[in-house]
Write a structure and sequence with these properties.
This is PPM-type phosphatase domain-containing protein. This protein is of the alpha+beta class and 518 residues long. 37% of the residues lie in helices and 26% in strands. α6 crosses α7.
Length: 518
């Protein structure tokens, strides 16, 4: 298709396009349209236009007719904000000497490599002017696509909303045996709309029995008041566990002293009571607030760990819905899942805490237990964390994937306020993953001390390095000052006798040696 045919096609498109279509095209191609208008204006202003045999118009130069050189245009590939960009000119294009670009864009012209590179920190449409070594200039338009992260708004939730809760929260409990740390962060989907976080968590330690408890729940996105349902579920379950542990004369308080068979039985009873208490709390709330119980639907993950009298550690978990529950064992480099993910036929579909799931048999079937010789790293999370960090069931069962995950967690957990740092960490950006995120962890004291020791060591090393650099700088300045003196004196003590000696510059001593050799 020749140029005339292309123009005819453009005319046809313009005639058929409505006003909104034209506005959209114009806003996306401002620079291109500006160039075309400028060229057309030049053409119209020209004189002595003659029609040739091939029906093409051309300019016949005269003293009054301006002659324009062909404008050089560089076609640049689109860039992405906050991502490295590199474009190298082709060999057939003239050498480029410099580049005029908007200040602070993050891109620069590499004369030696004849390439445009850098990391653009802005987004939008930018006009670039290239200065060529032959004196001419070339123009180009660079489109920088925005970082998706910056397109999300963070609108605070309405505190007057029914069952309002803070958009994020965190908590930490320190015990003689370890650390209980948990945090939740409202997902970007909710933040964009200014709605509440549907996740919730709770943690606790029963001092007398050394019973360490963590729980997380993910409110159903389709349930109007699931944010309240998740809160009720975790708190009611925890309250029931601690209520049982506080009953004097019952086996619950003696759990650590029982044999494995007795422990297994008591654990089933405790979980049955706790899960049913969670369901009952939702049922009661639905009646009290005159709302459908279905509007409080949520997943529920409960776990506890405690030391036994024989020196071993017992851990148990109940898990209904998606998310993840696991023991991460760095000693033997293995991961043990404490349940199975409930995934439905469709994406995002899962099982929630319902009347059917509150049945004793169903509860018992979902209980997983573990006994080992040392305290475990126990982790619970909602799918807002597990989905972006473990993209498949295979990864969820892979130690290497968990090791990578744990290495990420170590940084916020080593901060001065680890629970707040964990809360902030949960705001990580993962394309397509914008759900609420909740994480609850029990970290044994030995592991915790290792983490804090590493953190302190790094700080000490930084401080020592800074001191050493300062000493070296001072010594260098002193030596320089010392070296600039023609004659220097110093004191030397030997055999309890101090003598003052005179030193000369090394260059002077060398000259004297050479003269004496002659």
């Amino acid at each position: 298709m020749n140029a005339t045919e292309q123009l005819e096609k453009i005319k046809s498109w313009l005639n058929q396009a409505d006003e909104k279509y034209l506005d959209a095209f114009a806003s996306q191609n401002q620079t291109l349209i500006s160039h075309i208008c400028e060229i057309w204006q030049r053409f119209q202003e020209a004189k002595n236009i003659t029609s040739l045999e091939n029906n093409m118009l051309t300019i016949q130069p005269t003293e009054t007719t301006p002659v324009y050189k062909k404008e050089l245009i560089i076609t640049l590939p689109n860039a992405k904000q906050d991502e490295p960009y590199f474009y190298q000119k082709t060999n057939d294009f003239p050498t480029i000497q410099s580049l005029k670009v908007e200040e602070g864009l993050g891109l620069a012209w590499n004369v030696e490599a004849q390439a445009l590179d850098g990391v653009p920190i802005k987004s939008g449409e930018f006009l670039l002017t290239f200065q060529l070594t032959d004196g001419n200039t070339a123009h180009s338009t660079l489109f920088i696509n925005p970082n998706p992260k910056y397109l999300w708004k963070n609108i605070p939730s309405d505190k007057n909303s029914r069952f309002w809760k803070p958009d994020c929260a965190s908590s930490q409990i320190s015990t003689d045996l370890g650390q209980l740390i948990a945090a939740r962060m409202r997902g970007r989907t909710h933040a964009m709309k200014g709605t509440c976080c549907d996740d919730d968590f709770t943690i606790g330690c029963h001092e007398k029995s050394k019973f360490h408890f963590i729980a997380v729940a993910d409110g159903a996105g389709s349930a109007e008041f699931s944010r309240q349902g998740s809160k009720l579920a975790v708190e009611a379950a925890k309250d029931k566990f601690f209520e049982l542990l506080n009953i004097e004369g019952k086996d619950y308080q003696k759990l650590s002293q029982k044999n494995e068979q007795e422990i297994a039985y008591i654990t089933k009873v405790m979980f049955k009571e706790a899960v049913q208490a969670a369901y009952l709390a939702q049922e009661t709330a639905a009646k009290d607030y005159v709302i459908e119980q279905k509007s409080l639907s949520c997943t529920l993950l409960l776990a506890f760990t405690l030391p036994l009298i024989n020196g071993k550690w017992f851990t148990a978990c109940y898990w209904v819905g998606d998310g993840a529950a696991a023991i991460f064992d760095t000693a033997i480099q293995k991961i043990k899942l404490l349940g199975e993910v409930d995934s439905g036929q469709y994406s995002g579909e899962t099982q929630f805490l319902t009347l059917a799931e509150a049945n004793a048999e169903k509860i018992t079937a979902r209980i997983y237990t573990d006994i080992r010789d040392y305290p475990p790293i126990l982790i619970l999370m909602t799918d807002g964390v597990s989905d972006p960090k473990f993209h498949s069931d295979v990864q969820l069962n892979t130690f290497e994937a968990w090791q990578t995950f744990w290495q990420e967690l170590r940084e916020p957990l080593q901060k001065e306020q680890p629970e707040k740092a964990l809360e902030e960490w949960l705001d990580f950006f993962s394309k397509g993953e914008h759900d609420d995120r909740t994480l609850a962890i029990f970290i044994p004291q030995s592991e915790w001390q290792g983490m804090t020791y590493t953190s302190m060591s790094n700080e000490i090393l930084k401080e020592e390095s800074s001191i050493v650099n300062e000493i070296v700088l001072q010594a260098t300045e002193h030596n320089q000052e010392f070296a600039n003196k023609e004659v220097r004196t110093t004191n030397i003590t030997q055999n309890n006798e101090t003598k003052t000696i005179t030193l000369q510059k090394a260059s002077d001593v060398q000259v004297q040696k050479e003269l004496s050799n002659e």
